[in-house]
Amino acid sequence: MSSSADATTRSREAPWTDPQWAGVKWTIYRGVAYDITGFVDRHPGGQWLINLAVGRDATALFESYHLRHDVASAVFQKLPVLKGFPVHKVPQAPRPNDSQLYVAIKDRVRTEVFRGSENRGAHRRGSELAALAVLSFAVLTYCLYLRWTGFAAGLLLGVAGAWIGVTIQHCGNHGAMSTIPAVNVALGMCNDLIGGASLTWRYHHQVSHHIHTNDEALDEDVCSMYPLLRFDTRLPRRWFHRWQHLYVWFAYPALHLAFQLGDFTSLLTNRTVGAELLGATTMEKSALVAGKALHYALLLVLPWALHGGAAALAGAVGYSITLSIILAMVFFVSHNVPESKPLPAGPDTREVLFGPVEARDWGVQQVLASCSWGARVGNFFTGGLNLQVEHHLFPAISFAHYPAIARVVRDECARRGVRYTHFSSLAGNLRGFLCCMRQLGSAPDEPAVVAAVTKRGGKAE
Ligand code: HEM
Question: Start and end of every Cytochrome b5 heme-binding domain (predicted)?
Fold first, then answer.
């Protein structure tokens, strides 16, 4: 899958290889190519976020990240338009603001939840206390780990690592933890501390997963664990998938190790499974290497020096297990329940979820392909990932506001007859996940028609 899964797959005449556009940081917004070279350093959301737009159609990223669309889009009038740019060679991204559902929800969130306070950045404030709690817990558990290095302390440290993973790094990398970009960058880089890589995560998670949710070819979360796990009926079924709902638990602990392999491969190949690192700077790549060094120094080298190799290795294994299980559990359950996939036994949502990218209603896709569980308590402990539908619609809004936003989303979905899936608890969501994995493990293959079209460059033939 890996080399062909990116919506920005290059073709021979494409702008990525044409010397005319080589020194230009270009992006496409609604069919027009812009030169953003002079703007990236001035981007109010931070350079590291607008870098994601470089070299691709960024319409979906742009429209899903700016609550004040009017303010953000006004900038395009001042940006240089690239005349003669082969826009048609670049795969078209979804256009969230073409979704009536999404626009209606966005308008109501502004008027009913923020009531004008978004003009002062209120939508990116509110999770400071949660951040403090998570960081304090992490420091405390790391002190315990250093003092009593071993398997048990590693298990506990893994809980802290996972809490950082779902809350601090996740929201920081989305630009949702603070109105100050530098704070978001710093919190986002905690991903490197816990064993991930904030750079590759942004491309994997934001460019691939968030934009193309549950698309078997373009959403890295769906295709990167195949053939081990089959998350979609368009991925060919293998004999062992019928037991995937059982062995998924044993596959989880490998996640931390898989991150390591994946991050270094991405650095060498300049891509994640689902997206090319087209806007990544040398500084960002150096930070990835430094982050890995720091992670291993803290997890292994320092404890090794203090307590010896056996204790340090046992600690690292314990860490890896809890970190992986918690992260996988929280992330996987949100898009893999029978309601979020067109399965033989379920309602037919093929058109919305499997249709050509250009024709999809992005807002409806996000709602149908995601599910939420619980309310405020779950929100605090998962950094808003429990309210996954709301997170997918508003990734750059602080999770502190998701419970209020959820009321609007549910109401608007009910008015428009769009199914909104909510479980009262994580246990309910987990049951749905296992049921979905079992069904996916035995469901017949679905033709991958759409994937074939998008892989050829986003144009139907
Ligand atoms: C492609 C061209 C882009 C332009 C012209 C642009 C422009 C802007 C402008 C003018 C603002 C200030 C908005 C305000 O005060 O309400 C802003 C904020 C922001 N941008 Fe962008 N942006 C671009 C791309 C991106 C991308 C690709 C991302 C994310 C992946 C992003 C994420 C953000 C965030 C998180 C903020 C702060 C949000 C807020 O205050 O509501 N931007 N951008």
Answer: 26-69
Q: What angle do CA 100, 106, 108 make, to 5 degrees?
A: 100
CA of 94 to the centre of ligand 1 (A): 17
Q: Is 368 in the pocket of ligand 1 (CB under 6 A)?
A: no
**Atom 4 in ligand 1: which residue has the minimum CA distance?**
72
Tell me if 422 sits within 8 A of 414, measured CB to CB.
no
**Coil/strand/helix, residue 29:** strand
The ranges of the chain with pLDDT < 70 are 1-13, 344-348, 448-461
Is 52's C-beta closer than 6 angstroms to any atom of ligand 1? yes
296 by Cβ neighbours in 10 Å (0-12 / 13-18 / 19+) ranks as middle
**Cβ–ligand 1 contact at 62 (below 6 Å):** yes
pLDDT value, residue 350 = 73
Strands 372-373 and 422-423: parallel
C-beta of 68 in contact with ligand 1 (< 6 A): yes
Assess: ipTM above 0.90: yes
Domains annotated for the chain, with CATH where assigned, are 2-97 (3.10.120.10), 98-461 (no CATH)
Query: Residue 43 C-alpha to ligand 1 middle, in angstroms?
Result: 7
Name which residue sits closest to atom 37 of ligand 1, judged by CA.
Answer: 45
Ligand 1 near 45 CB (within 6 A): yes
Q: Which residue has the tokens 């997963």?
A: 209
Give the model confidence (pLDDT) of 75-134 as tens digits: 999 999 999 999 999 999 999 999 999 999 999 999 999 999 999 999 999 999 999 999
Nearest ligand 1 atom to the CA of 68 is 16
Ligand 1 and 122: CB distance under 6 A: no
Token representation of residue 34: 């812009």
3-state SS string over 388-433? HHHHHHCCCCCHHHHHHHHHHHHHHHHHHCCCCCEECCHHHHHHHH
Give the tens place of pLDDT for each residue, 320-378.
Answer: 999 999 998 888 999 999 999 877 666 667 777 777 777 889 999 999 999 999 999 99
